[in-house]
Amino acid sequence: MQLMQVFYRNDRAGSVDDITLDELIRPQRISHFYRPSEDRWIDIAVDIVRSSETQHEGPERRVSRRGEDEQEEEKPRGLFARLLRRRKELTPPKELTAVEWFQRGFVLVYNAGDDLGAIRAFAQAIRLDPTYQRAFLNRGMVYERIGNGQQAIDDYSRAIQLAPDNAKVYYARGLALRHLGRELEAIVDLKKAADLQYRPAIDVLRA
């Protein structure tokens, strides 16, 4: 999976997966993203990413559209081809639910150590259920781990909007803010987590 470079509205830079990029473009939470296929930064205020409403395939539709510049693979013919088509008709692909995508992401990050795969799985869960607080929290934690503190803070903030009494999220956002040097904001979050009796936050404030 390829991560996309972005500039947030506060001029911080980071890298996100393609699904998260879609989330950031719609409400214009970023100002620019890098389009590798054109080797340039795209200003979303002047370059309409979704200019083709009828054939949109995501912000990076021009990066890796297979099939246009490649010869079509030789297709099975005859009885074998008919059997394959029949099998596909009888067994349509199963669409994963938001919970299943979340579970897949959890396994990828904590059992397989696949941060990028986990990010995309959590993003799929969020795409299917924009109120999935745990998906935002866990995606934020992984983004923080790979160095995108701004996206982590954004995800923690959205998790807090969905579950304003979750002490763990205030604690996580407080540490992320502290890591970015935003100490006053960090203290507010850590105190909130401590007020909610989250022991790690109490210990950090006492240190």
- Residues in helix, %: 40-55%
Rg on CA atoms, Å: 21 Å
Taken as a percent bin, the fraction of beta residues is 5-15%
Helical segment tally? 9
Q: So what's the overall shape? A: globular
* Tally of DSSP β-strands: 4
TL;DR of this structure?
By secondary structure, the protein is of the alpha+beta class.
Tell me the layout of helices and strands:
Layout (H helix, E strand, L loop, with lengths): L3 E5 L4 E4 L1 H8 L4 E6 L4 E4 L34 H13 L7 H13 L4 H14 L4 H13 L3 H14 L4 H13 L3 H13 L3 H8 L1
Antiparallel strand pairs: 1-2, 1-3, 3-4
Helix pairs in contact: 3-4, 4-5, 5-6, 6-7, 7-8, 8-9
Structural account:
The protein has 9 helices and 4 strands, in the order ββαββαααααααα. It has 207 residues and is α+β, with helices and mostly antiparallel strands. Among the domains are: 4-43, no CATH class; 165-207, no CATH class. Strands 2-1-3-4 form a 4-stranded antiparallel beta sheet. A hairpin with a 4-residue loop joins strand 3 (30-35) and strand 4 (40-43). Helix 3 (98-110) runs antiparallel to helix 4 (115-128), helix 5 packs antiparallel against helix 6 and helix 6 packs antiparallel against helix 7. It is globular. Mean pLDDT is 86; it is low at 50-57 and 60-72.
